[in-house]
Amino acid sequence: MKEYNVGLIGAGFMARAHSIAYAGMPMFFWPAPGIPVKSIIADLTEESAKDAAIRFGFSRSTSDWHKVIEDDGVDIVDICTPNNMHQEMAVAAAQAGKHIFCEKPIARNAEEAKVMLDAVKKAGVKNMLAFNYRRTPAIALAKKYIEEGSIGRILNFRGTYLQDWSADPNSPLSWRFQKSIAGSGTLGDIGTHVIDIARYLVGEFDEVFASLKTYITERPVQTGAIDKLGTVKGTSDVPKAPVDVDDEASFMIRFKNGAFGSIEATRNGWGRNNFITLEIHGEKGSIYFNYERRDELQVYFADDPGDRRGFRTVYTGPAHPYGEGLWPIPALGIGYTETKIIECYDFFKAIAENAETSPNFEDGYHIALICDAIVASSASDRWQKTNCV
User: Are both 337 and 210 inside the same structural domain?
Assistant: First the structure.
């Protein structure tokens, strides 16, 4: 069984999630398609990098991310940094012949995403984006039902991603509130997850009609480099700086296959933690999913006898996608970490079998085109073509 040396760049909470996935993947999926070896991790300072190496189980550490890419022993470069660094790191990794696993969104805009896509195509390296929510077994099961024709031709899609971690105006001005670093706000941070799910389940976007809104126009300046995602608060004596990204993104969708849809994403929805939902209506049935109840898929099949019609709950388990590698009893509990483990498994499997990855940088580029169209639509107050082909 081949070992693959992983070099991880960034040591925040996403690095923790990825590190757990590398450790857990062979335990869940055995025989594993490959054995991840946590070789080297890079962070902003020597001290923080060394601490991350000890904490996350990497053999070595560095404060210079170039050393990760220049290391001849590294097979996979894992990018867990703010969005403004993705392009430079991914292009360098591709030119060095490394496979690339990159956190979402792919970049700040479609222009940067295209540069990244061209680089991996030219280098011929495997590449994947970390849209892990589509790896939730219930969503994969929804995909199976749709491909089997169980709900017929899809008519419409409705999705949400609602959080409240930035609803407090005293939440610090992290990089996620700065356009120069993030590219966009709620749209790129969480809205792209639902866009990815919609493309995965329904199909490509043709055009969008959008509205973006910023509710809190300034926030306390954050001290320190670690992104706390609203778990710390500023005080009245802390200086404030402008917010120049969106707090909410709401948009309608016309899909290329004729389906219609809508998505709402906000980080200012008090009482909502990680409220990802989707509802899909087809000519022969419907599907509903709520990530906060992620072991459950609600399905309605119109060809059921009249006295039995109604939404039924399917609890995902061994009989369903990825069930052979997860817990042996339905509804025993699938968590965020398991979706990252599944994601890791699919990436390593694609590398080992020289197969296509999904979602890859091509998908990321299309999602970036969609996001650029959403921004343009909000500015023009009219429908905007996505230019996805």
Answer: yes
Find the CATH number of the domain harbouring 20: 3.40.50.720
Q: What is the CATH number of the domain that holds 251?
A: 3.30.360.10
Which domain-ending residue is among 92, 113, 132?
A: 132
Given a cut of 60, whether residue 14 has pLDDT beyond it is yes
Q: Which residues contact 164 (CB under 8 A, 6 or more apart)?
A: 230, 267, 268, 269, 270, 271, 272, 273
Structure-token pair, residue 351: 């590398």
Asked if 248 contacts 212 with a C-beta cutoff of 8 angstroms, the reply is yes
Cβ-proximal residues to 115 (8 Å cutoff; 6+ apart), any chain? 87, 91
**pTM for this model (two decimals):** 0.96
Burial string for 54-76 (b: 16+ CB within 10 Å, else e) reads eebebebbbeebebbbebeebbb
CB 265 within 8 A of CB 162: yes
Q: Is residue 120 located within the same domain as residue 240?
A: no
Number of domains in the chain: 2
Task: Judge contact between 80 and 58, C-beta under 8 A.
Answer: no
Containing structural domain, residue 233: 133-360+365-380
Residues 6+ apart with CB under 8 A from 105: 83, 129, 183, 188, 189, 192, 364, 367, 368, 371
389 is a domain residue: no
- 121 three-state secondary structure: helix
The reply to whether 192 and 330 lie within a common domain is yes
Half-sphere exposure of 141 (CA within 13 A, CB side): 23
Rg over CA atoms, the chain: 21
Q: Are 46 and 171 members of one domain?
A: no
Beta bridge partner(s), residue 219: 241
Same domain, 112 and 128: yes
- In sequence order, the 6+-apart residues with CB closer than 8 A to the CB of 42 are 7, 8, 9, 10, 11, 49, 61, 62, 63, 64, 65, 67, 68
> Could you read off the pLDDT of 286-306 as tens digits, one per residue?
999 999 999 999 999 999 999
Residue closest to 71 by CA, chosen among 167, 7, 138: 7
Residue 85 falls inside a structural domain: yes
pLDDT digits (tens, 9 = 90+) for 139-171: 999 999 999 999 999 999 999 999 999 999 999
